Amino acid sequence: MNVLVTMHNLPAEKVENLAPAILPLMARFTFAATLAGYFWASAMTKLGDGIFGVFSPSLGAYAQIFPKAMEAVNYNASELSAFHTLVVIAGTLAEFILPLLLIIGLFTRLAAVGMIGFVVVQTLTDLFGHDALQHPETLGAWFDRIPDSLILDQRLFWMVVLITLVIKGAGPLSADRFLKLR
User: Fold this and answer.
1) Could you give the count of Cα atoms lying within 13 Å of 84 in the half-sphere of its Cβ?
2) Where do the TM regions start and end (predicted)?
3) pLDDT at 11
4) Domains of the chain: which residue ranges?
5) Residue 68 backbone dihedrals phi, psi, to 5 degrees
6) Which residues contact 159 (CB under 8 A, 6 or more apart)?
7) What's the pLDDT score for residue 66?
8) What pLDDT is attached to residue 103?
9) CA dihedral 50, 118, 102, 26 (to 10 degrees)
């Protein structure tokens, strides 16, 4: 019996010793491979015309972020307040900047917290602004054996990746580590 326990524990210890380096790197890779493109593509739909399009958001940007408010003003964004415009600009910038910071591992914990906040706001907007609560197939359910709902299932995976980065940091192959060594 002792031989079996030893055969299990020795390789397990070696793998466990690698975890501080591997987990953050894999979390950043997973984010880059699956979510960065999603967020950047979403941000691109919010850009207005010209080189400074981020500061003059598209009509779609307002409709995505403030669907009920846009409906109330008959999709005339000029009738919305400066607050709405600032939120749309901040959200668009966040969709570009935060994924980049996570990929290169710069200010990783702060960027991951920012992305968690972004995903929470995005989820609330989907649930209440876009009425996802009325669509069980989009909302999904945990423990239902169907792992592909857009809200509960996917966003739980997103959060696990982001929380890993908040807890573990960026890992050894990162801009954070380079700055720490300097």
Assistant:
1) 21
2) 20-40, 47-65, 85-103, 110-129, 156-175
3) 83
4) 27-173
5) -70, -40
6) 116, 119
7) 94
8) 97
9) -130
Alpha carbon distance 98, 40 (integer Å) = 10
Q: Which two tokens stand for residue 176?
A: 């954070």
pLDDT, position 50:
86
* Alpha carbon 175 to chain centroid, angstroms: 19
Which of 7, 84, 100 lies closest to 46, judged by CA?
84
Contact 136, 146 (CB under 8 A): no
The residue type found at 32 is A
Residue with tokens 């990783």: 108
pTM exceeds 0.85: yes
Please write the tens of the pLDDT for every residue from 95-140: 999 999 999 999 999 999 999 999 999 999 999 999 988 988 888 8
- Other beta carbons within 10 Å of 175: 15
pLDDT beneath 70: ranges in the chain: none
- Cα of 2 vs its chain's centroid, Å: 45
Judge contact between 116 and 159, C-beta under 8 A: yes
At residue 37, the pLDDT reads 96
Distance CA 148, CA 145 (A): 9
Tokens encoding 12: 């397990």
Please, what's the b/e burial string for 58-74 (b: 16 or more CB within 10 A of its CB; e: otherwise)?
A: beebbbbbbbebbeeee
